């Protein structure tokens, strides 16, 4: 099996192609990267900026350079001794531009008689396929027949053979599909989709034929040695994730395979999945969490309550999930409820909805994970005692037929309810302390302790040592450095609360949760361009679905939110106050960034570096985190480091690049050092401010945590880190290391130690 020493994620798009990726391959090799990790590379919807909207899985995307450029990139990476990991999307395909997807076009043209009719998860018993593309009123007056196709503005649809003739309306009524108003999609859709995105139609990869057709090209690249690893997007949407991974492993026995599985704290990865691990959100929660001071929880709860932000996490989460089942995924819930036998339709719908709302994890994998299913049923009973009979019937049918359609569809959809309700709604409503509001995170738990971190790291080394670890992805709510500076707020909760009161009185946002989120975001990204912050707050407001949303707009509120960044930064006194506050926490933020990065790069697992984050990166949620990366600047800094420079910790981020480069090079050139895991415990009055461990007997890592409290307490004050016998050298500085932490950390707040001549 080809397990990379590390990966570097790049976001391919028409403006950054296979050839552009080849152009940075040498830089990545010099940085210390083991494998280039690419966003989806199969042909995607016209103009796609991310590639998750695949339209043709049988060819490399022409807009990225096509097959020739893909092969050239693969050949170069092989020459450099690097691997290539690609992101694959088995759950869905784009149908936004019907003609771009030949399979979907054929289904629209021939209906159930199409050779591709079984490729998509369509409920054919409900009649013609419903396509929610029309305007608010659902009017079809704009329909016309052009060149043998049915046209609606710039959208085109095929005309079934033998049905042409008559008015456009008459032609429309004779097709295998019906164009309906877009608002009807959530309630009436007759095909499964990706979450609530109607232009992403679900694919039935549980069918061996569909699997072969959708995976054949990528698996050919694996067989040829061009692709060494696969990252699998959203497996929870599949009918049988375990069966899918077993088939994938059979067809790619030597590939490194990681699953984008979001694990709840304490939830194990299903044992029957033949994968190397997750894509690292569990590691993110643990690494970021150990740099948060749990003592700040009461102060942040008090501030949130004072401002009117709800602080009952589970109640907020349940409300958000119920909004998803009752307003967004209505069609999916109804389709599942119709499969429940001998139960009134409304009672069945309510029972299905309440069960998914109560899921303690994203989904179960029956017959595995029966405790999660039982917990969901129990939670539904507690919320709705009146549904006892319906829940009894649901529980009995699912347990009796764990591979049946009811159990399968309910499990596929529960993950959608959790993701939309929790990640995409609750995390923008429950804004008490936003650094915890991360994919795979638990905002109700205020950080983790050092001993818990050690336990979890040791478990990863024992169970999934080749799992990916990450701090930033294209899906994170904020980048690692934004989160690291935000974590400092937990060390100055009183000062921050006073500042928020002062700032809100001068220019607050008239929605409490967004107001608190806005101030946390402003200080953690300062100095951010007003336009970037405006776009972020617009998205946050719409995702929260409190005062406005993507579909039902409050124009006045949106205008006020859009004006907020400019108003704040244009108010000289207010902006100066914010800037002074940031200056007081900035140094500690840098320390957190360096600490969490060194831990991620050296702890158990395969570390991924998201594009550009080898320097400071104060990004927010997508699309902000997909902005172009200045590789010329990074090459120039790396060149200086290769010549021996040890940069200062300043706004340039060069110190972070030093840490990334030194750790990655050591990991690539001496992989045997990165085996095993044992805690190292500091001794002395400031011991709690040091997180340290060994990997092999000859590698030790030590980092500073809670730096504000450390300084306030008078520094290290004789605290020592007892190192195993022998001479140790700090790879970052080249100096002989000492166990005296004041000396060890006098240059950088982190240390990467190697014993002897190892």
TrEMBL record:
Domain of life: Bacteria
SMART domains: Aamy
Gene3D superfamilies given in the database record: Glycosidases, Maltooligosyl trehalose synthase, domain 2, Maltooligosyl trehalose synthase, domain 3, Maltooligosyl trehalose synthase, domain 4
Database matches in InterPro entries: GH (IPR017853), GH13_cat_dom (IPR006047), Maltooligo_trehalose_synth_4 (IPR013797), Trehalose_TreY (IPR012767)
Domain named Glycosyl hydrolase family 13 catalytic: residues: 1-384
GO biological processes: alpha-glucan catabolic process; trehalose biosynthetic process
GO MF, one example: (1,4)-alpha-D-glucan 1-alpha-D-glucosylmutase activity
PANTHER family: ALPHA-AMYLASE FAMILY MEMBER, MALTOOLIGOSYL TREHALOSE SYNTHASE-RELATED
NCBIfam families from the UniProt entry: trehalose_TreY
UniProt protein name: Maltooligosyl trehalose synthase
Organism, scientific name: Amycolatopsis australiensis
